[in-house]
Amino acid sequence: MTRSTDEALARAAVLALIAQAELTPKPGLADTRDLQARATGADLLALRWSAKALTPGFAAMAAAARRPGEPTRALREELGAIGRCAEWTMARAGGGAATGPLHHGALWVMGLLVAAAALRPGAGSEEVTATAKRIADHPDRGAPRRPSPGSQVSATYGAPGVRGEARAAFPHVRRALDALSRARAAGATETQARLDALLTVMSTLQDTGPLYRAGPPGLRRVKEGAHTVLEAGGTATPEGAAALSVLDAELRERGIAPRGSAALLAGALFLDGLPAPAVPAPAVPAPSVPAPAATAPSGR
């Protein structure tokens, strides 16, 4: 891999983050309906600037992964340091505060996947997520010691959060990729396929966002609502679209935002946008060459 490849991975990551943030209508989550309102400070222009500000950080993560060529503890700590700097830069680019759709959980997911993709160029999604797990298994001695809302929820309810997802090789990222493929094959639009992938994650993820806001009953409602949309045939059907509208209205009214699910969808969109792994061409047997005819001895 080269510097240009690092930059390509960084651009792919930024595009995936923007695609996730602009996907509409996301139940309970900020999307273009909110981001069009410039007065909120979270308009589309600020969102795109804050996402693009992450490009150098992601490129640095890819380059950091290339140097050792293996998922070492030193790499994990370097990625953490780069990520904290990138998060600060993102906040400044977004107007001085972290922009809602691009919170630190999405940055954590994307940073690990970018580094893993750099370590395993041309690999498929399963190998990339397995490599990301090997990176996440290492502790980061430079990480802040102060508790975060996610860590508090994890300690209270035992929810793994995005860090637990990483240490399990991102099972919900892979579920989202499968859901994308199924929806596309069934004739859904790209927006519908992505919404179905998000709902697939929401239907089973122990998302710390709803747990922090509304406890286990709130998380249960998120899962049940997402499952109802999928059982109705997904967002491509009138029944599924109606169920999505009901769920969205309820989550917005209660202030429940499944941000962990959105972060994992962004990771899936990043992997989905990478070039497919090359399939080796079948070996072609060499043409047989007839053996030279035996010559009779001269008798001399």
Automatic annotation (TrEMBL):
Highest taxon of source: Bacteria
Q: Which reaction does it catalyse?
A: 3'-dephospho-CoA + ATP = 2'-(5''-triphospho-alpha-D-ribosyl)-3'-dephospho-CoA + adenine
Q: What is its EC number?
A: 2.4.2.52
Q: Keyword annotations for this protein?
A: ATP-binding, Nucleotide-binding, Transferase
Q: In what ranges is there compositional bias, type Basic and acidic residues?
A: 134-143
Q: Where is this region: Disordered?
A: 129-158
Does the record carry Kinase as a key word? Answer: no
User: Which InterPro entries does the entry mention?
Assistant: CitG
Q: What name appears for this protein in its UniProt entry?
A: triphosphoribosyl-dephospho-CoA synthase
- State the species of origin: Streptomyces endocoffeicus
Q: What is the lineage of its organism?
A: Bacteria, Bacillati, Actinomycetota, Actinomycetes, Kitasatosporales
